[in-house]
Here is the input.
Amino acid sequence: MSIIRNARLAARGVQKIEWVKDFMPALTEIGKQLIAEQAFTGLKIGMSIHMEAKTAYLATILQQAGAKVFATGCNPLSTQDDVAAGLASLGVEVYAVHGISSKGYSQHLNMVLENKPDLIIDDGGDLLEAYLRLPDYAKWPLIGGCEETTTGVTRLKQLEKHGLLPFPMVDVNGAQCKHYYDNKYGTGQSVWDAIMHTTNVLVAGKTVVVAGYGYCGKGIAMRARGMGAHVIVTEINSVKAIEANLDGFEVMTMNEAAPLGDFFVTATGCKDVIIEHHFLLMKDNAFLANAGHFDVEINLVQLAEEAKSVTHRRDDIMGYKLKYNNRTLNVLAGGRLVNLAAGNGHPAEIMDMSFSLQILCLKYLLEHHGLPEKKVYDVPADIDELVARTKLEAIGITLDRLTSDQQAYLGLD
Ligand code: NAI
Here is the structure.
């Protein structure tokens, strides 16, 4: 039985799922074939991924392709209760409630696992970690799974290194059609969408500090500049720092950037990127947001210790008034990934590609059932190519084709 906030929200949730379908043509097309084949007949699929409309659409396709689907979120603050109710009304078993405690969240992960899924979709690695925590007698031979995000893949690689990965996992984030677009353009747009509607303040003319110039950071910096902000980047990697510099951004340490920023956005996958001494240097009414997977990038424990009061200032904004200088720092979405906890996540057109990869990689795992070692697999190049081609066809773009002469010239024959 599903565990959701309120079944009466289902109609609004279904409406949201219907809406995104129109903007996810590649997933629809790939899904049609898998539904016709009944590719997942008799299988149980467990999902732990942001519980919002695009994810729900993916779950319904898996279900129509024959699977029994059990779904939870991967962050209690990104769960949309209406979508959870809508998805449950469509026959998927859902365990997800917005804002649930971490204990409740763990219980929901365990409920997915109690169904003994054959395949999993994970976003950040929490479902896999919950599997590892089960006593040996309660484990079963899972075929494998797909990981959606950079931080989840970092966790998988650590397990692989120590020989602890319990079954094969596919690094969906590593596919070109994922991180080139989802992390960069998806995060770039949705982070600013969330920050702007949450704060209702101007970005143009402001100084934005972006921590991390990876795929997410690049998108966030690029879109901030597009809106007229002055952008500063902080990095720890020399090569990325040069790239940011050549892209026209100022690069400096967080210590140097702290007194200059109006907005701070972390996107590193690392912890303690903004800490105690940085807070004391910041301007009055600076905004702090995180786009990385976990809420560890801005050290809110230290910020609370420095504060003489913490007040709820607006939906998804807490104001921390500092003892040291009486300035207020505004933290968005409790330091959780802002575009999902205070927004709608990536645009549907972007998740179209990410979730096309997810569904094709689940099929890949099935086709290679028994073969793979317990390691992290790259997405096969032909799956990446198929997703790109399907997307281009769906949006009506055709490409030049090499003649046989050209192929021979390039050594491709
Ligand atoms: P990435 O590995 O491409 O980039 C991270 C960058 O941060 C690297 O250039 C690294 O050198 C830098 N970095 C690491 N520690 C740092 C520190 N202490 N200070 C400054 N820079 C530092 O990773 P990607 O793909 O950009 O992902 C970043 C995070 O965002 C991950 O946690 C990932 O899971 C998450 N993510 C969030 C999304 C969202 O919707 N909000 C979407 C996709 C990924």
Observations:
- The first helix runs from residue 10 to 21.
